[in-house]
From TrEMBL, chain B:
Keywords, comma-separated and alphabetical: Signal
UniProt source species: Shewanella salipaludis
Entries under InterPro entries matching the protein: Porin_dom_sf
Name of protein: Zinc-regulated TonB-dependent outer membrane receptor
Biological classification of the source: Bacteria, Pseudomonadati, Pseudomonadota, Gammaproteobacteria, Alteromonadales
Keyword Signal attached: yes
Gene3D superfamilies membership: Porin (2.40.160.10)
SUPFAM superfamilies documented for this protein: Porins
């Protein structure tokens, strides 16, 4: 699992050396000090790994963990202490833990986006920005929806900016980063039309989903989330709210109920059983299921799961 | 140590503070000097009877109402101010609990903090009271650290570049709230009274578990009790933020372990923690009572706590704590013991609001007449304003 890459490298430096031999065959000319990268979410660990194959990458969270609610735990402080670059979604997704890690890790290199701090949301225009935010609205982000990685266009822009950031931090590795970006972009641009062809039948389909986790996926595929299992963002489903969803599902136009790998599926199962709708658990990120070994596998798996309910 | 300004019209002061809050964007995005993170904590309760060394008294009351302001000052400094409004015996006071600056860009994992701040000894001490899972601190904290020990001073902290979390720190404080009982008020206390040193370790056990453990030492220059010749009365269990039982050396060991299924804190998680304190050097050598019979020349206190968040809306906690302290009574050290078993049930509408019901059973021996008491507390604690990132 990708989320364990960083760990593997740490625990088994010998194994890592063997792995490095393989990587060196593919990307020669990377014989310099590699970047030490701390990624807040597994999707950005996977992207960094693709764009800097020699870098030591640590993922702070897994696809089974809600990135809104992470403990500023000692292991993360120790990892950030030694990081050259911190890569996060941004748009306040990590507001409950990243500032504490920065304060405690006493690492001046990763404090500012002018240096070793990178927010994906800063590189693109997020959906659903809000002019006014109030706690009564639940856990909403004024800076827009931060679950950006299911938009292939936005992700490519983020990849380009991340590559440029790594080049700026590590100019000696420029040629390697350029080669890796070219390779990733080419494979990505080749994959997108294939995915779109696979998803052609999903256009216009309506789903009920948990949170706005797949906002960008539905936007890209032309699907519509007609209702949310959460009564308000961040609040768990209530029985009253589920009853209203059952009524909505009764209109007969809903394809499925979608939950992400870190979300509790009990509410979805309750609704699915009564409304006779399939419940689909999609991997929220790389490592969210066995197929999602990298970003390509993640997209493949999500589309296969969605196509499976047709 | 406390700067107390009894205000003639606390209502007006609160109103002014409230207006400041309302005019600022409560959900400050990235806190800056023109747009700092502003937060407030409101805490109210009803308690069925008094507890020793606690600020919560019988009946209706307010806990610490807290107003905090924080921001990065520039690329080198972070600053925070926390004002606490307390009301006891019909009087309101504003205390400054925190007013510190901290460096952000020192090299080699070093950081420096100066001003008034909470000492980093032990596990609970540097945590804000409103994040606790119980209405009061364990008896160990109330007796030996005045609830939580914050003071004016400096701290140097070092974080090692190791895979396992390992930090080392040292602090120097004024130490006024840690003075030994002064019966005549004539004792000259050192105004550089407290020095601390601590080390913490931590890491993960798989995806699901995380731990931290620490060792601390606190040297209190003013901690030895100097009995007066004529009348050497028993120590009074004090109120406020002052330590009730003092000594020259405090040794502490702490641990915390947190677990969540697959490390996902969204729905369920468990926190186990415990701390042990031992305070030695209770009496001054020059004191006439130094020759008094000493059955035991130390205070000792500990607690163990387990809190389970069973759903986003409900949590339950169980805590057991003991205090075994010494007090000079008629030229002889007498043991005073207090044992507390506490059960708390919390209801959380969101991360920001908690309503808590707590049952406390106290068993005392030679302790303010407490033998076998049952206390019920109903409390709300809510925070408004900026999301604060919590410590582990």
């Amino acid at each position: 699992m990708l989320c364990l890459w960083g760990l593997t490298v740490r625990i088994n430096s010998k194994l890592a050396k063997f792995a490095a031999v393989g990587l060196t065959l593919a990307y020669t000319g990377l014989a310099h000090a590699e970047l030490n990268v701390f990624a807040c979410e597994p999707e950005y660990a996977a992207l960094t790994k693709a764009l800097a194959p020699g870098a030591s990458v640590y993922a702070a969270t897994t696809a089974m963990q809600d990135p809104h609610q992470v403990q500023a735990r000692p292991s993360l402080i120790a990892k950030m202490r030694r990081a050259d670059l911190v890569v996060c979604a941004g748009a306040e997704l990590e507001v409950g833990w990243l500032p504490m890690l920065q304060m405690k890790s006493a690492n001046a290199k990763v404090r500012s986006t002018e240096e070793g701090l990178f927010f994906a949301a800063d590189q693109v225009d997020p959906l659903d920005k809000l002019a006014q935010v109030d706690r009564s609205m639940g856990d909403v982000h004024a800076q827009g929806n931060p679950h950006l990685h299911f938009d292939p266009q936005r992700l490519l822009k983020i990849a380009q900016a991340l590559s440029a950031k790594m080049t700026a931090l590590d100019p000696d590795g420029a040629a390697g980063y350029q080669a890796a970006l070219a390779d990733f972009s080419q494979r990505w641009l080749a994959a997108v039309p294939v995915w779109q062809a696979k998803a052609a039948g999903l256009t216009g389909k309506k789903v009920i989903a948990y949170h706005t986790s797949f906002r960008y996926l539905f936007n890209w595929l032309g699907m519509e989330q007609v209702a949310d299992l959460e009564p308000k963002p961040g609040l768990p489903p209530t029985s009253g709210h589920l009853a209203s969803l059952l009524k909505r599902a009764g209109e007969g136009d809903v394809l499925a109920i979608i939950v992400a790998s870190y979300q509790d599926r009990r509410g979805a199962d309750w609704l699915g059983e009564r409304a006779h709708l399939p419940v689909v658990m999609l991997p929220m990120s790389v490592g969210g299921n066995d197929q999602s070994r990298d970003l390509f596998g993640l997209y493949d798996s999500v589309l296969a799961l969605l196509n499976g309910v047709k | 140590m406390k700067i107390q300004h009894p205000i003639s019209n606390p209502g007006a002061a609160l109103l002014a503070l409230g207006c400041t809050l309302a005019s600022a964007n409560a959900l400050a995005l990235d806190p800056t000097l023109t747009n700092p993170a502003i937060s407030a904590v409101v805490d109210g309760y009803y308690q069925s009877s008094d507890r020793p060394m606690s600020e919560r008294t019988e009946g209706f009351g307010l806990g610490e109402t807290e107003l905090a302001l924080s921001a990065n000052i520039d690329d080198m400094f972070y600053g925070k101010v926390t004002a606490v409004l307390e009301s006891s015996d019909g009087e309101s006071e504003i205390n400054l609990e925190e007013a510190f600056i901290q460096t952000l860009a020192m090299p080699a994992g070093l950081s420096l903090r100066a001003g008034r701040f909470m000492s980093d000894i032990g596990y609970l001490n540097n945590q804000h009271l409103h994040t606790d899972a119980f209405t009061d601190r364990p008896v160990a904290y109330r007796a030996l650290l005045g609830g939580h020990y914050f003071d004016d001073g400096v701290r140097l902290d070092y974080l090692a570049p190791t895979d396992i979390y390992w930090s080392l720190g040292a602090e120097a404080f004024k130490g006024d709230s840690m003075h030994a009982e002064d019966e005549t008020g004539s004792r000259e206390f050192s105004n550089l009274g407290v020095f601390t040193a601590y080390s913490k370790f931590g890491g993960d056990i798989g995806d699901a578990g995380s731990w931290m453990a620490g060792l601390s030492y606190l040297r209190n220059q003013n901690g030895r009790f100097m009995p007066h010749e004529e009348e050497a009365g028993a120590e009074e269990a004090g109120h406020g933020h002052s330590a009730s039982y003092t000594g020259e050396n405090t040794y502490a060991a702490d641990f915390v372990y947190k677990w969540a299924p697959q490390g996902n804190y969204k729905y369920r998680h468990l926190t186990l923690s415990g701390e042990y304190f031992r305070v030695t050097g209770l009496l001054s050598d020059e004191a006439p009572a130094a020759g008094a019979k000493r059955r035991q020349d130390y205070h000792q206190a500990w607690y163990l706590s387990g809190v389970y968040q069973m759903s986003p809306n409900w949590s339950a906690g169980l805590r057991y704590g003991e205090l075994d302290a010494q007090a000079l009574e008629a030229d002889e050290m007498q043991s005073q013991k207090l044992r507390e078993t506490e059960l708390s049930l919390g209801w959380h509408q969101s991360h920001f609001s908690t309503v808590r019901l707590q049952y406390t059973h106290q068993q005392g021996a030679n302790f303010d007449g407490i033998t076998d008491d049952n206390i019920l507390t109903l409390q709300y604690v809510m925070s408004l304003g900026a999301h604060g990132a919590h410590q582990f």
